[in-house]
Every structure is written in structure tokens, then in C-alpha cells.
Design a protein that fits this description.
- By secondary structure, the protein is of the alpha/beta class.
- It has 2 domains: 2-75 and 203-292, Rossmann fold (3-Layer(aba) Sandwich); 78-185, Glutamyl-tRNA Synthetase, Domain 3 (Glutamyl-tRNA Synthetase, domain 3, Alpha-Beta Complex), CATH 3.90.800.
- The protein is 36% helix and 16% strand.
- Strands 1-2-3 form a 3-stranded parallel β-sheet.
- The relative contact order is 0.20.
């Protein structure tokens, strides 16, 4: 069994991250498998070295050791470019020149616009542009994103496509529920959907553990796996850790950061009890900190 924990260094880890990391770590260790650490640092405007250092320090405090080098997505843009080129050759991606404001205005003007799990879906404006119109806008140097033509991609992949969640059972992929998702932008040459799908395959992940709020994303990831001929892991979507106000935890709430809990005298054992997790088997040895972590 190979699992992974893949935080983004855009802020401090909180109790929800600890829960997610322990779930993945404990499953791998219980099965005698491997637990990997990946840093999803593709957002160069928000990712910071100090946040990465904080993540490594928090994991060390939690008693979580990972196997092999840390994979940083920012060092592997070539992997995502290769996958993107394959999809482009299949004719299942297209350039979208719409700004976020234009998309919002178009959605607002159409009360009956299709809705997805996170709100209104992209209306497909640029999907209908002619080849000449696309070429002209590209020649003008217009900023654009690359979107997945979900309808065309689904038809090409055939089906039905299925995947298995340990809690929800076998699922039939319905990627249309997320619409034509963005796979890359000019300023960020990959997206979460593309990068995580490629990374899980390249790293040999066999069990993807992540929070339930990413359940719907798996429908798109299954489609990408089919298009790129990638293996399909088993999934486990666990619950979210909520704050006392009943809302999900957020990185911006510094009082709930693991570093703050550590400074306040909390112990990892107490946090595990609070989260309903069994005691961690065995005492953890000292773990590597930021300056000692090997890069992949």
C-alpha cells in the first residue's frame, strides 16, 4: 500500500491537516506500506518557504515520518506539460479567453445556468469558438486558460468509467458535474486536477486518502486517468474536522494552527484522542526538519 499527504504551503497547518496526515500515515504503516509527502506548491503567488518549513516542523512534531524524498510539484512542470500535450493531441482541450469577471457576468445573466458542487459551472463560451477565432486571439497574445472539453473527452474515453471509494462503494464517474475544468493557465502551467492525477500515478499511490470535500473532484480525475492510461487507485474520502462554530477549519485561523497548539503545550497524543484516533503505535524517532529534507 502506498499513501500520500499532499498539503499546499500557502499557510499554517491546522487540526484538519493533522487528521488527514495521520489517516494516510496510519493506513500505510498498518499495512506495512509506504507513506509519501508531496508539496502542492504550484501557486507561486501564495506559496512561501516559511510555510513549507512550518509543514515539515509540524509533521515532525506529530511523529509522522515519510518514505523517500519530498516531491515538490513546482519541480515537475515537465511531467504536467507532457500530459497536457497528450490531451491536446487528442483534441479534448481548448483555450478559454474569458476573464473571471466575464464568466461571472455571463452566469449572472443566465439564472438557469447549470450548477456544480461548488456553484455555477463555466458556461462553455469559448468551447464554441471557431479555429480561426481561436488562432486570431492567440496571435494577439490574449491571456487564456486551457480547459478540458468534458463532453468530447468522455466520449473519447468510452465507459462507463468507475472508481471505488472505501466508504461510498463503487462510483460511476460523472465528470460533467464539474463542467469544463481548467487544466492549466499561463501563470500556472498546471491545475490541481491535472497535477494530482499525474502525481498519484507517477508516485505509484494505491490508496488516495483525502477529505470529503474533494469527493466530486474524483469524477474528473477518473476521466483524466482513462485518457492518459493511468492506473486507478482506491479512494478513501474522510470527514472534515470542524471548529467549535460548526464551520470547517481554515488556514487563516491562526489560533487553530498546529504551531499555536504546540506552543500552548498541546501534545500529539491529546490531539489524536480529540480526533477519535487510536494511539500512535510506537514512539516516533526525531524526524528531519526543513534543512534536512531530500528533494525529488
Amino acid at each position: 500500500m502506498i499513501t500520500r499527504f499532499a498539503p499546499s504551503p500557502t499557510g499554517a497547518l491546522h487540526l484538519g491537516h493533522a487528521y488527514a496526515a495521520w489517516i494516510a500515515h496510519d493506513r500505510a504503516r498498518a499495512a506495512g506500506g509506504r507513506f509519501l509527502l508531496r508539496l502542492e506548491d504550484i501557486d507561486h503567488t501564495r506559496c512561501r518557504p516559511e510555510f513549507e518549513a512550518g509543514i515539515l516542523a509540524d509533521l515532525a512534531w506529530l511523529g509522522i515520518a515519510w518514505d523517500g524524498p519530498v516531491r515538490r510539484q513546482s519541480a515537475h512542470f515537465a511531467d504536467y506539460a507532457e500530459a497536457l500535450a497528450r490531451l491536446e493531441a487528442m483534441g479534448v482541450i481548448y483555450p478559454c479567453f474569458c476573464t473571471r469577471a466575464e464568466i461571472a457576468a455571463e452566469v449572472a445573466a443566465a439564472p438557469g445556468a447549470p450548477q456544480g458542487p461548488a456553484g455555477p459551472l463555466y458556461p462553455g463560451t469559448c468551447r464554441h469558438l471557431s479555429d480561426d477565432a481561436r488562432a486570431a486571439r492567440m496571435a494577439e497574445g490574449r491571456d487564456h486558460a486551457l480547459r478540458l472539453d468534458v463532453a468530447r473527452a468522455t466520449a473519447l474515453a468510452g465507459g462507463p468509467l468507475t472508481w471505488v471509494d472505501e466508504k461510498a462503494g463503487r462510483q460511476t464517474a460523472r465528470p460533467e458535474m464539474l463542467g469544463d475544468v481548467v487544466l492549466a493557465r499561463k501563470e500556472t502551467p498546471t491545475s490541481y486536477h491535472l497535477a494530482v492525477t499525474v502525481d498519484d500515478a507517477l508516485q505509484g499511490v494505491t490508496l488516495v486518502t483525502r477529505a470529503i470535500d474533494l469527493f466530486s473532484a474524483t469524477h474528473v480525475h477518473r476521466l483524466l486517468q482513462a485518457l492518459l492510461d493511468l492506473p486507478v487507485p482506491l479512494y478513501h474520502h474522510h470527514g472534515l474536522v470542524m471548529g467549535e462554530d460548526g464551520l470547517r477549519l481554515a488556514k487563516r485561523d491562526r489560533a487553530l494552527a498546529l504551531a499555536a497548539m504546540r506552543a500552548a503545550g498541546e501534545s500529539p497524543a491529546a490531539l489524536r484522542r480529540r480526533l477519535g484516533l487510536p494511539p500512535c503505535p510506537g514512539a516516533a524517532a526525531p524526524l528531519p526538519c526543513a534543512g534536512q529534507v531530500e528533494e525529488e
